[in-house]
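re: that chain from earlier
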Amino acid sequence: HSHIGMDRAGEPMSESEANERMDSIYPLVRAIDSIYMDDHAFTESVESGVLYSTVLPGSGNPIGGKAALIRNFAGNTKDAFIKEIGIKAALGYNPRSTVEWKGKRPSTRMGAVALLRENFIKAVKTKKLLDKKKKLTEELEPLTEVFMDIISGKYKLMIHLHKEDDLYNAMQLSNEFGFKFVVNHGLDIFNSKPFRDLKEMKIPLIYGPLDSHPYKVELKHETWRNCENVMNSGVKFGMMSDHPVILQRNMFYTMRHFSSIRYEQG
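^ sequence. v structure.
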């Protein structure tokens, strides 16, 4: 999970391309279309042993767009691109903090969930019309078709969230509409039960970024000590840099937090 090539080294924030501001629900956006491979962070990542990246749109929108798995050592996006790895979604503070952007915008967490639910309901109803031959595939709206693809399992949602309650909101949506998702972040979860529930439901976790500054209220329980709950839960997890939140070249330093953990097998 990173924004390498979108938030580029040596460029001001006004040049950032991580978040598209034209609408809050726009899954047709592709991260690969905003990556510049001449970002020298790619070279530094490779020098530090990080050869591949999953680059996602940012979390300012409830649906941010398609994530890309890329080679960090390629010279251009054509050679770098491997495949689309899922669709970025966001719950919690971030998507409700962008009310000044264009389009229909949530100002609350319940509003962000409602926007997602609205589009999933539309996709379910459209699928029923197709099955009954009351609608032709040629008539499908592109956005609705993507939500149908999420429900069918063609795309997983990569859901940005930090807090336990937002995790359970995501689980509720998943149970309601039958889609698969991967939790991205989870840094404010400070007890073991949510991580055990992730394991029970076979939902993967991309955890981090560790060593970043907890700059907002929804990170008030963030601490490296939460790593013990992650490890002992048995959840399938990987680590993220969220570059440039922590530089991808420094990602291996975050592994030190797991070296002193009392690991409980079983």
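The chain has one domain: 13-254.
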